[in-house]
Specification:
There is one protein chain. This protein has 26 helices and 25 strands. It is α+β, with helices and mostly antiparallel strands. The chain has a 4-stranded antiparallel sheet with strand order 20-3-24-23, with helices on both faces. Strands 14-5-18-17 form a 4-stranded antiparallel sheet, sandwiched between helices.
């Protein structure tokens, strides 16, 4: 102990020194750690505002569910899931980029304004898209009102509440964006000088003759490209070679495992067997739910709700008949008609909801419901009773009104009760939400409805088909190396496909759906690497090679050299052709003389306008036509380097349009054109200034 006491100061100093070193080392280590490793739970950040993966994923799930419902149920394919990810990212980006601008200006969306955007005469496009009838493709107001009523009956914390809140926030963001855009648009001003110049560019006509020395007249073999040639073009066009985001280039071979005729026959045999069993079963809906790939709701439908072929069979068949199979969109469908009736297309109803948990139990709730029904039948105001007794906070403020809704919009029990009642009748029914006292206000239309148990089976690839494609992929994968990728493919009679500028969030290559795992590999591999395994999508096996990496930002010359080879070759040819044209022009005073020396007869271009710089029968030649409008008539031009070759031109005359008496229409046209682009330009400017980190590829 004495030893420690005597040396306590030294121990403390050493300990503190060690702590400081450890802290500094930790900071150095952390400094060298990639951003993604230090922010494991962040899907990205915008101007320093981190985006948590859990919150982001929740919105992706909600957006995906909306897509799924709009598509009539079923699973979303990878493309649709990717689209949901992109939409949520765009919403975050839009919101964060605008937040500072909106707060600075003081823009808001009031409660009355929001209500109008949701349930007004012209709802937000977000609302219209979310509540679109899948059969008609049109906005369904009844579907919206039904959803709001159902959400209000659900307990807080239910998934539907989260979906609704996200949708409302998107509506608010959309409105704030529109307000901001309108403010920017209103700042646009077109001067009379600008309007007059635009009028002239569209209406002033130029007539000219030209001699063309085509690039194709110079053999490629006679042209040698030097590093200086490449560098000159690169330096002149450096701004073009800026990569907005990191990309990859791939070579890949696709092994097709799509269903064959044998697979189609196999699925058809299976659906025929299910048809026999469906015809015999006594539990139609349960049998369909167990055996169908798509879980179709067991509800009444009117003609037009299903595919045309199945519709025709169902509505022509007697009750108890099993119809099909029908081949539609890559799947076989069968159905058994369980019931048929003629009834209203839609009803207008109000309800009072009693919650048994707060009424002292089911029996007491039913007794109270009977009492309320009796009061209504004696003439008491249903609306007043709803305000007093209903547990549905959403509808009670409107006297229990649920609006007008069609079949398939409510819970089956509730729907059966409402559509089975008479107009003006007051009924009581029970659902999972409680006891409902319902007043049927009105019944609209009359159609025939059919309830059917529907079973479908997707035509998918069988084991033999998959194994044959996989054997071929395995043979190639086992033989291929980084340097002989294309050679091995050629030896095995396979086609090598190429994809450039592949982004980190790509889901398909040249129209072929690819797994996200393959794209993630491409962003972790080194140039020249071949995939470490055979990648599998729904109907394909893929082996790929990474051929190029392009970082975000200014691309070096070497990265774009192959891309610009053709245009650089044309520029070198142009130097030869310009020298040839200059030699022919020496001492000449007219284009005909120059053409004679070159062995060319001048061609005539008539009625050319500056705004559409196309030489008929040749190509779009911006530089040539632009030069023409700066020349004096009857004077040959210097040689002009164009896109198709080197030109020498001579203006024969201009036709000036009549001076416009009123430039108002011209100004409006220019203003509208600018207004259509103003938001994208403003958004891009905000994005260019922003600090955006995108880590989505790590999670999706």
């Amino acid at each position: 102990m004495n030893y420690l006491r005597n040396r306590a100061g030294t121990v403390i100093v050493v300990f503190i020194g060690f702590a400081i070193v450890a802290f500094l080392l930790g900071d150095i280590i952390n400094y060298g750690t990639p951003f993604w490793a230090r922010h494991q739970n962040q899907v990205g950040s915008i101007n320093g505002e981190a985006i948590d993966i859990n919150a982001f994923n929740a919105q992706v799930d909600q957006t995906s569910e909306m897509f799924r419902q709009q598509m009539g149920g079923g699973n979303l394919n990878p493309q649709m899931k990717s689209f949901a990810v992109q939409q949520v990212w765009s919403q975050y980006l839009n919101r964060e980029l605008l937040k500072g601008e909106v707060e600075h200006i003081g823009l808001t969306v009031g409660k009355t304004e929001l209500n109008d955007l949701v349930q007004g005469e012209n709802p937000s496009m977000q609302i219209q898209q979310a509540f679109r009838n899948p059969q008609t493709g049109q906005f369904d107001r009844d579907q919206l009102n039904t959803f709001i009523s159902q959400v209000n009956m659900l307990p807080q914390g239910h998934e539907a509440h989260g979906q609704w809140e996200v949708l409302l926030q998107n509506v608010i963001d959309e409105r704030l964006s529109a307000k901001y855009t309108n403010l920017v648009s209103n700042s646009i001003y077109v001067t009379s000088l600008e309007a007059n110049e635009a009028y002239s560019q569209r209406n002033k006509l130029a007539n000219f003759e030209y001699v063309l020395l085509d690039y194709q007249s110079v053999p490629d073999s006679s042209v040698t490209l030097t590093d200086q040639d490449y560098q000159e073009y690169y330096n002149e066009n450096k701004g073009v070679f800026t990569n907005p985001e990191e990309t990859r280039s791939l070579e890949y071979v696709v092994f097709d495992a799509s269903p064959t005729e044998q697979d189609t026959a196999r699925v058809q045999t299976a659906i025929e067997e299910l048809k026999t069993q469906l015809a015999e079963t006594k539990t139609d809906s349960l049998f369909a739910a167990v055996n169908s790939d798509t879980k179709y709701p067991y509800i009444f439908r009117k003609e037009g709700d299903l595919g045309p072929a199945l519709d025709t069979l169902l509505f022509d068949a007697p009750v108890g008949t099993t119809v099909g199979p029908i081949l539609s969109n890559g799947r076989f469908e069968i159905a058994k008609v369980a019931a048929s009736l003629v009834g209203p297309d839609s009803v207008k109803a109000s309800h009072i909801l009693l919650n048994p948990a707060t009424e002292g139990g089911t029996d007491k709730a039913k007794a109270k419901a009977d009492s309320i029904k009796a009061l209504v039948e004696k003439g008491e105001s249903f609306a007043a009773l709803a305000i007093q007794f209903s547990a549905d906070e959403g509808s009670k403020i409107n006297g229990g009104e649920l609006g007008t809704f069609g079949r398939g919009r409510m819970l089956p029990t509730f729907e059966d009760a409402v559509f089975g009642a008479k107009e003006g009748e007051v009924i009581i029914t029970t659902t999972q939400y409680g006891i409902h006292i319902i007043k049927v206000e009105d019944q609209i239309g009359s159609s025939r409805f059919v309830k059917a148990a529907i079973i479908d089976k997707q035509i998918n690839s069988g084991r033999e088909t998959l194994e044959a494609a996989y054997r071929q992929a395995t043979q190639f994968f086992g033989a291929v190396g980084g340097s002989d990728f294309e050679e091995t493919a050629t030896q095995q009679g396979l086609s090598v496909l190429k994809a450039d500028d592949v982004t980190a969030m790509e889901t398909n290559l040249m129209g072929t759906e690819v797994p996200r795992e393959l794209v993630r590999w491409a962003f972790e591999a080194d140039k020249g690497d071949v995939t470490d395994k055979i990648h599998e999508s729904e109907n394909h096996y893929i082996v790929a090679k990474l051929t190029g990496i392009r970082e975000k930002g200014q691309l070096p010359l070497e990265a774009v050299k192959s891309d610009i080879e053709d245009v650089v070759r044309k520029r070198v040819k142009a130097k030869q052709l310009i020298a040839k044209a200059e030699e022919a022009a020496a001492g000449a005073t007219a284009l005909a003389q120059i053409g004679q020396k070159l062995g060319k007869t001048p061609a005539l271009a008539e009625n050319i306008v500056f705004a559409n710089p196309v030489i008929p029968g040749v190509a779009q030649e911006n530089t040539v036509v632009g030069t023409v409008f700066g020349l004096q008539p009857k004077q040959p031009s210097k040689p002009i380097r164009g896109s198709q070759g080197v030109y020498v031109v001579e203006v024969t005359g201009f036709v000036n349009p009549e001076a416009p008496t009123d430039l108002t229409a011209q100004k409006q046209q220019l203003s509208q054109s600018l207004s259509q682009r103003i938001w994208s330009l403003a958004f891009q400017a905000l994005q260019d200034k922003a600090d955006v980190v995108d880590n989505r590829a790590r999670f999706f």
